[in-house]
């Protein structure tokens, strides 16, 4: 089965612009109006449109990337539009960020006001209070929304022509000149009046901020109803004009270039000096909670992996505990040895040559 990216012929990391361009090119080629009524190209056009509808919408696209093509098609966009939010499985924790998600965990319903909360990997380990913010639109208090549709009147400077005519005196001859009307920018019309408060939008944006308590063990794209995790009273949230929309907080876990995530486990690399690899010893290894000392045994090979138990991410309650961190050991080759170190290493080298 072709992915939507393949259908549009773009890379999975394509920008919105690239996606739009690819779509336009294909749509032109396969559009029913241009290709007659060939059923194959009609089907192709359907396919292209479907791919574009998903990939051009950042929300749907991230959901698609997350669920994968097959899962997205069977449990995807259309169904989640009617998903009943009352099933609270969305925050059951059983849905791991690395695993294929279950049917009922399809992401928040589209009819919602969403706000993101960013967490670092370490911040997912404990309950944490964060501030979320979002905007709502309120009718402009000055024009009461009346200027949402700006009324235009004929430009008084050019009488609606968009160009101005005047006669220039050129060595005694009157020469007719026609110039672009700057007042109306050539349109012939100007707005009758623009509300200075909302600049003709008819509404103003109001910013809302709330403190929320995100529980320990939260994961990428987990979502909560604001009222379930807000630190304030419910009455304060009720003041937000949201009609029948849900106020939804979505967790976004920031990537950390030092740690690769696979499910609940973390993967990192660590550079150890040659002597410690050979002789063993204590090394200070970075984890998401800071450096920890770890004893590595004698004779470790470069590229071998050690396991730091319970240094990964929190598992869902059902499983309990935490994942582990796997550290691949690399060798650190020093560049500026002291004379003493060089002497010692040469002595060692001699013993190797003696072995031969
Ligand atoms: Zn206004
Ligand atoms: Zn004008």
Describe this structure in words.
The two termini are 59 Å apart. It is built from 11 helices and 15 strands. A 4-stranded mixed beta sheet has the order 10-11-15-14. The protein has a 3-stranded mixed beta sheet with strand order 1-9-8. It is α+β, with helices and mostly antiparallel strands. The chain has helices spanning 4-8, 16-30, 32-35, 39-55, 58-67, 69-75, 77-81, 226-229, 234-238, 274-279, 339-355; strands spanning 112-119, 128-139, 152-154, 163-170, 173-180, 189-191, 203-214, 223-225, 246-253, 260-262, 265-273, 281-287, 290-296, 305-308, 325-332. Helix 2 (16-30) packs antiparallel against helix 4 (39-55) and helix 5 (58-67) packs across helix 6 (69-75). Among the domains are: 152-191, no CATH class; 260-355, Sandwich (HSP40/DNAj peptide-binding domain). The model is unreliable at 74-104 (pLDDT under 50). Helix content is 27%, strand content 29%. It binds zinc ion (ZN) (2 copies). One zinc ion is lined by residues 140, 142-143, 147, 195, 197-198. Residues 155, 157-158, 162, 181, 183-184, 188 line the site of one zinc ion.
């Amino acid at each position: 089965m072709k992915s939507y990216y393949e259908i549009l012929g773009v890379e999975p990391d394509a920008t919105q612009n690239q996606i739009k361009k690819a779509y336009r090119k294909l749509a032109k080629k396969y559009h029913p109006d241009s290709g007659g009524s060939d059923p194959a190209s009609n089907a192709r056009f359907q396919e292209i449109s479907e791919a574009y509808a998903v990939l051009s919408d950042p929300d749907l696209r991230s959901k698609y990337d997350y669920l994968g093509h097959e899962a997205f098609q069977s449990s995807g966009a259309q169904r989640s539009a009617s998903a009943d939010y009352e099933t609270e499985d969305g925050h059951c924790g059983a849905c791991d960020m690395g695993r294929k998600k279950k049917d009922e965990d399809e992401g928040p319903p589209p009819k919602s006001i969403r706000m993101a909360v960013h967490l670092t990997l370490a911040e997912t380990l404990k309950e944490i209070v964060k501030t979320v913010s979002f905007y709502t639109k309120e009718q402009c208090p000055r024009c009461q929304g009346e200027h949402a549709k700006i009324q235009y009147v004929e430009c008084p400077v050019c009488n609606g022509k968009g160009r101005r005519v005047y006669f220039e005196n050129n060595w005694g001859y009157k020469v007719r000149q026609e110039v672009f009307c700057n007042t109306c920018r050539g349109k012939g019309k100007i707005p009758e009046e623009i509300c200075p408060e909302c600049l003709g939008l008819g509404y103003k944006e109001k910013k809302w901020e709330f403190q929320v308590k995100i529980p320990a063990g939260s994961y990428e794209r987990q979502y909560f109803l604001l009222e379930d995790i807000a630190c304030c009273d419910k009455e304060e949230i009720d003041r937000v004009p949201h009609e029948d929309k849900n106020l939804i907080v979505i967790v976004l876990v920031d990537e950390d270039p030092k740690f690769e995530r696979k499910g609940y486990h973390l993967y990192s690399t660590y550079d150890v000096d040659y002597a410690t690899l050979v002789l063993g010893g204590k090394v200070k290894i970075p984890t998401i909670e800071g450096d920890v000392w770890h004893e590595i045994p004698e004779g470790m090979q470069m590229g071998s992996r050690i396991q730091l138990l319970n240094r990964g991410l929190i598992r869902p309650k059902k499983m309990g505990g935490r994942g582990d961190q796997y550290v691949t050991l690399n060798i650190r080759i020093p560049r500026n040895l002291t004379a003493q170190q060089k002497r010692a290493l040469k002595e060692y080298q001699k013993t190797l040559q003696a072995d031969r």
